[in-house]
Automatic annotation (TrEMBL):
InterPro entries: VapC45_PIN-like. Residues 1-83 form the VapC45 PIN like domain. This is VapC45 PIN like domain-containing protein. It comes from the Bacteria. Pfam families: PIN_10. It comes from Brytella acorum.
């Protein structure tokens, strides 16, 4: 799988979990590291998604699941979107966000691997790891 952190996450978070992803053959990066920061979300899905690899976008933009043009782009491209809930964008301490991300990483990978293409997963800000809530775009 290919995990891409959007602009709502500092690029350092992608760099923290990249070695974990590589252990299982996954690619982890950020839109900033790819040089495509500032791109509209609909265009972003078109650029990132590749039919040969499952693409997972990590964001804290929960409103994305309510914007019909973005939902249509997710459905059409088959992207999987992991939405970090309240707390992910409110935690100012990047070290704490990184710690939380590492804690959740195995479950996030498992849920993204089992999710239907064109769906959303909800990543809670919690220390209790559980299956991620999911819904179709």
């Amino acid at each position: 799988m290919r995990f891409v952190f959007d602009e709502n996450h500092p690029p350092i978070l992608a760099r923290v979990v990249a070695p974990l992803g590589e252990l299982d053959g996954h690619n982890v990066t950020s839109v900033r590291d790819l040089g495509i920061a500032g791109m509209k979300d609909v265009e972003l899905f078109g650029v990132l998604v590749d039919d040969t690899v499952r693409t997972v976008l990590l964001t804290t933009d929960k409103a994305m699941s309510r914007r019909q043009h973005e939902v249509a782009a997710i459905r059409d491209t088959g992207a999987i979107v992991v939405v970090g809930c309240k707390g992910w964008n409110q935690q100012g301490d990047v070290i704490e966000r990184a710690r939380h991300l590492v804690w959740w990483w195995p479950m996030m990978v498992q849920c993204a691997g089992n999710a239907d293409r064109g769906s959303f997963l909800e990543l809670p800000w919690s220390s209790k790891v559980a299956m991620l809530k999911r819904w179709r775009a």
